[in-house]
Amino acid sequence: MTARGKSKKLNKAWLHDHLTDPYVKLAQREGYRSRAAYKLKEIDEQLHLLEPGQFVVDLGAVPGAWSQYVRRKFGRGTSTDPAAAPGPLHGTIVALDMLEFEPIDGVDFIAGDFREPEVLALLETRVGGRPVDVVLSDMAPNLSGVAASDAARMADLVELAIDFAQRHLRPEGSLVCKVFHGSGYSQLVERFKASFRTVKAVKPKASRAKSAETFLAGIGLKPRASGVDIPK
Ligand SMILES: C[S@@+](CC[C@H](N)C(=O)[O-])C[C@H]1O[C@@H](n2cnc3c(N)ncnc32)[C@H](O)[C@@H]1O
Q1: Which of 40, 133, 182, 225 could serve as 54's disulfide partner, Cβ 3.0–4.6 Å?
Q2: Best-predicted range by mean pLDDT among 25-39, 142-156, 211-225?
Q3: What is the mean pLDDT of the chain?
Q4: Domain assignments of the chain as residue spans, ordered by start
């Protein structure tokens, strides 16, 4: 089969999966920008990480389903209807992505590449020394198909997210990070274990079984070797 034929077949398979996916339908019904909302929902329901009043940083936030989930949770009042318009925001949400973000009421968005020092500096200015409760990262590099270089680029993003979390989380705070199973996975788990008291790996049902993605949650910072720089 030609490359064009293969790509046509893959597109058809993707479209079929997309149109028959129950989470796509649920997201449309409940007004989420993508089915990704249900991955975070499941992680949150399992680990109880998100509470109104918290300060949350959402890295790799576009199209915005995770931010929507947090915004709804922090403004739902007593309503159990996930599609109900959220009330006043109890908490702080700062989202970042290098792509354009359609605004969400109450979510402070920063446009830029998290790997760029000036973008990180801008994010740190917005954080303004306040302790962060939860850092979320759904960032992933554009995959090249070359396993070793994809794993290295993913590890680089995870490393930067851990570093940010170590400098800005409150001691009992948590980091949820997308990672890929496969080359480099066990090193990332070790890296999480070196930084957090509790480490959980979660593969939500909403994450497609054939996708290598999984999520690592680190809960409670271990004291850093230097013993400094952990916000109180
Ligand atoms: C899977 S999507 C995130 C979906 C999002 N959690 C949601 O619920 O809508 C991954 C995002 O990470 C972003 N991303 C990847 N690398 C990044 C980087 N270095 N800096 C900022 N954003 C990045 C991409 O632009 C993309 O929008």
Answers
A1: 133
A2: 25-39
A3: 90
A4: 1-30, 33-221
Helix, coil or strand: residue 153: helix
Residue 102 three-state SS:
coil
User: Residue 209's Cα: distance from chain center in Å?
Assistant: 18
Q: Are 52 and 71 in contact (CB under 8 A)?
A: no
192 ligand 1 Cβ < 6 A = no
User: For this structure, is 178 an active site residue?
Assistant: yes
Q: Is the pTM of this model over 0.70?
A: yes
Q: Is the pLDDT of residue 44 over 50?
A: yes
| Spatial distance between the Cα atoms of 209 and 14, rounded to a whole number of angstroms | 14
The model's pLDDT over 88-118, given as tens digits with 9 standing for 90+, comes to 999 999 999 999 999 999 999 999 999 999 9
Q: Is the CB of 119 under 6 A from ligand 1?
A: no
**Nearest atom, ligand 1, residue 68 CA:** 8
> pLDDT class for 33, splitting at 50, 70, 90?
very high
As a whole number of angstroms, the distance between CA 78 and CA 203 comes to 29
Distance 76 CA to ligand 1 centre (A): 25
CA distances to 31, 104, 202, 203 from 27, in Å: 6, 16, 21, 19
CATH for 33-221 is: 3.40.50.150
Instruction: Look at ligand 1, atom 5, and give the residue with the nearest C-alpha.
Output: 61
Average pLDDT over every residue of 135-140: 97
Q: Is the CB of 64 under 6 A from ligand 1?
A: yes
